[in-house]
Amino acid sequence: GESVGLHLPTLSVQEGDNSIINCAYSNSASDYFIWYKQESGKGPQFIIDIRSNMDKRQGQRVTVLLNKTVKHLSLQIAATQPGDSAVYFCAGWNSGNTPLVFGKGTRLSVIA
Amino acid sequence: NAGVTQTPKFRILKIGQSMTLQCTQDMNHNYMYWYRQDPGMGLKLIYYSVGAGITDKGEVPNGYNVSRSTTEDFPLRLELAAPSQTSVYFCASSHQETQYFGPGTRLLVL
Fold this sequence. Notes:
A: six-stranded mixed β-sheet; 11 strands; B: 52% strand
């Protein structure tokens, strides 16, 4: 079955630096991916998504990169701010089949 | 729109008690989901529904039941609470893949 995992459980970055959070998936049939942000005591919140026919998608201060060859995606946050401190989850979807499968998450801490 | 609402926010149960976690969405989404999140872990899918009257098991369905009699509501039932069910429960809904999550219900089984 699908498994989605994160390379590192925690990441600390200096305010203003760029952050990169990585994620690997196992099912090559996954064709849609989402990054979620979860702040303490709250439910996950959608950040950005990407379909498997793309290798890069940009949002406001965030970029998601997808490498289907090695089944890896990453979330890049530019000019990281204290408000970016949270746990970040990647999730994968097999269209028409099982719903999203979530990884364990990476806790991002921003040092002021 | 209120989005996805969950009640209660927090509940303590004794072993063997039963309870229903409520979830309601006002976005007219067909898809609804129940997840549990254990401390320091990711989300695990318990049950999901692709529309009123249709439910399917997720990754960890044992000990839970669901029903979907309306588009808006997707309650999760625990019949015989066990300590292993201590967790935070999130309900979500979606039109397609992008899910919108509720604020969660924290459940403690003692």
